[in-house]
Amino acid sequence: MLYLVGLGLGDAKDITVKGLEAVRRCRRVYLEAYTSILTVGKEALEEFYGKELILADRETVEQEADSILKEADVCDVAFLVVGDPFGATTHSDLVLRAVKLGIPYKVIHNASIMNAVGCCGLQLYKFGEAVSVVFWTDTWKPESFFDKIEKNRQNGMHTLCLLDIKVKEQSLENLMKGRKIYEPPRYMSVNQAAEQLLAIIQNRRLQREEPAITENTICVGLARVGAPDQKIVSGTLYQMSTVELGGPLHSLIVTGTMHPLELEMLKLFSVDSSSFENKAFQRTT
Fold first, then answer.
1. What is the pLDDT of residue 172?
2. Which among 38, 117, 223, 279 could disulfide-bond with 231, CB atoms 3.0 to 4.6 Å apart, if both were Cys?
3. Are strands 28-32 and 54-56 parallel, antiparallel or unpaired?
């Protein structure tokens, strides 16, 4: 049996009882280590679960999935995912491979950022399509995510922006030379995401467009959701480019049309309560 087990968002104790029971009876336990991170390391998980964990990076999961599934038809194997197992499409691929090999599987769900963002007070059913905001480089500055945020906002919907994670990435030079040398991990902050959005707004204006999102659009910055030191701030997009939320992981929400109850909740987290209401009032129902 292949078990796909969600670990939740905080620390070792966020695993469900059902998930922990499955982990403890498995012969091999893999920890997916590239789509998200917990606030504790591998060693803390091993101590709490009472099992040795095998780190599974992107290369392992996407190119060597057969090694994870090896003997899963005759013994129990667990694949641990921060958040919920289906928070990334890669994990659907693992299920499809298991089915093709005749290996039974079971999914044990947990909280993910996709539903935990409700902690800021915005209503989950009012979110449109989620987007990924990637790190720009000197030669690659995609803007496609901005178009999706605009479309959501024009429809009155909020947008959850999942911010880029770079783990075990190679430089172009090392990649071309085939050297297994990896860059230090990088996690996009709310500041960086907001700065890229502001840059796109300026680009659009230079093209004589007036974007549906401006410097004054109300946004929400979230950091380490589910952890004891989680942080939530609300304010304008410009303010999001200056707030300090500490360590990873960060997420950004660009709001759409807000219900008065949502506004009341966001005021609890406002960077500047005196100006918040005036800016937010422009987008209420």
1. 65
2. 223
3. parallel
Query: Residues 76, 25: contact at Cβ < 8 Å?
Result: yes
DSSP 18: H
Assign 49 to helix, strand or coil. Answer: helix
Please give the model's pTM, rounded to 2 decimal places. Answer: 0.90
Quick one: DSSP state of residue 29?
A: E
Residue type, 12: A
User: Of 9-23, 154-168, 172-186, 214-228, which range is least confident?
Assistant: 172-186
Q: Is 102 helix (H, G, I), strand (E, B) or coil?
A: coil
pLDDT at position 244: 93
Q: DSSP 3-state assignment of 190?
A: helix
Query: How does DSSP assign 111-148, residue by residue?
Result: --HHHHGGGGS--GGGB---EEEPPP-SS----HHHHH
Strand spans (E) along 121-262: 131-133, 159-163, 165-166, 186-187, 218-223, 231-236, 250-254
What number of other Cβ atoms are within 10 A of residue 265's Cβ? 20
Give the position of tokens 């905080």.
10
Q: What is the pLDDT of residue 285?
A: 42
The two beta strands, 231-236 and 218-223, are antiparallel
Distance CA 51, CA 57 (A): 19
Q: At what angle do helices 273-281 and 260-267 cross, to 10 degrees?
A: 160
State how far Cα 17 lies from the chain centre: 24
Alpha helices in 207-259 (DSSP H): 237-240
CB 253 within 8 Å of CB 133:
no
